[in-house]
Amino acid sequence: MSNPLLEVADIPALAALCKERGIKLVVDNTFSPMILSPIRLGADIVVHSLTKYINGTSDCVAGAVCASDEFIHKLTDINSGASMLLGAVLDSTRAASILKNLHSLHLRMRQHSENAMFLAEKLRELGLRVYYPGLPDHPQHELLTRLMNPGYGYGGMLAVDIGTLKDANQLMTRMQQEKVGYLAVSLGYFKTLFSAPGHSTSSEIPLDEREAMGLSEGLVRFSVGLDNNIDLSFERIKRCLADVGVI
Ligand SMILES: Cc1ncc(COP(=O)(O)O)c(C=O)c1O
């Protein structure tokens, strides 16, 4: 699932192309743990930022590479392995702490997805342009429905086009004041996080390419939290949208 427009790659089709040509298929599954199992769908290597959903508490920076024993042993070979030589080895206390959080990942993903689906539908009803793979008119909705593991929903990430960067920034400031969540570029936290990718995580993409991709300056990315009362969160967001004059 891509950042920030949440496009879904056809992993089995890519795997078939890669197999024909002897290429290894690497999938970054950071946005969709539990939901997608890329290795079962034909990928060779799956990478995750553990910093995000898998740890879930935004208090670490870590990553994981999942692949065959043979590939992992090559990476960790004491004489020639890239991980060994470049030092990408997680300390054991941090690894144990992430492992403890991993045990609740299935429950968290379910709740993130349920809340995101609710917000996506409600924001759409307000007439906003919403990007969320759980909405039936998302270009890869059917593809994701076919590929995903049942029971975890369509993920906790959604994006909304607010129009201009100025309005997007004002909205995010208001939402932080109203305790909807935090203005932050990370994701997968138990609180809702929001950012404007055009001016943060995707700012290195040249403007003309961003325009061609449909990545508007006013796009706000939400990592929807584990809110117990998502109705209340939506009412707060609606108030903020009205304050900024977007609705
Ligand atoms: C999809 C995706 N993969 C990988 C990363 C890198 O994560 P980390 O900060 O843990 O290195 C990010 C960070 O935002 C991300 O969004």
Write the layout of secondary structure elements.
Layout: H1 11-21, E1 26-28, E2 45-49, E3 63-66, H2 69-75, H3 82-86, H4 92-102, H5 105-125, E4 129-131, H6 141-147, E5 157-161, H7 165-177, E6 181-183, E7 192-195, H8 207-213, E8 219-223, H9 230-244
Parallel strand pairs: 1-2, 6-7
Antiparallel strand pairs: 2-3, 4-5, 5-8, 7-8
Helix pairs in contact: 5-9, 7-9
Pyridoxal-5'-phosphate binds next to loops.
Question: Would you kindly provide a written description of the structure presented here, covering whatever features stand out?
Answer:
With 247 residues, the protein is α/β, with parallel strands linked by helices. The chain folds into two domains: 92 residues, Aspartate Aminotransferase, domain 2 (3-Layer(aba) Sandwich); 139 residues, Alpha-Beta Complex (Aspartate Aminotransferase, domain 1), CATH 3.90.1150. The protein contains nine helices and eight strands. The strands form two sheets. It has a five-stranded mixed β-sheet with strand order 4-5-8-7-6, covered by helices on one side. Helix 5 crosses helix 9 and helix 7 crosses helix 9. The protein is globular and about 60 Å long. The mean pLDDT is 96. It binds pyridoxal-5'-phosphate.
Count the domains: 2
Indicate the overall shape. globular
Give the class-level CATH name of the largest domain: Alpha Beta
Mean pLDDT: 96
Tally of contiguous helical segments = 9
| Secondary structure tally: strands | 8
User: Over all CA atoms, what is the radius of gyration?
Assistant: 19 Å
CATH homologous superfamily caption of the largest domain: Aspartate Aminotransferase, domain 1
Q: Helix-strand pattern, N to C?
A: HEEEHHHHEHEHEEHEH
Unreliable runs? none
Find the structural class using helix and strand composition: alpha/beta
The span between the termini is 29 Å
Largest sheet: 5 strands, mixed
Bound molecules: pyridoxal-5'-phosphate
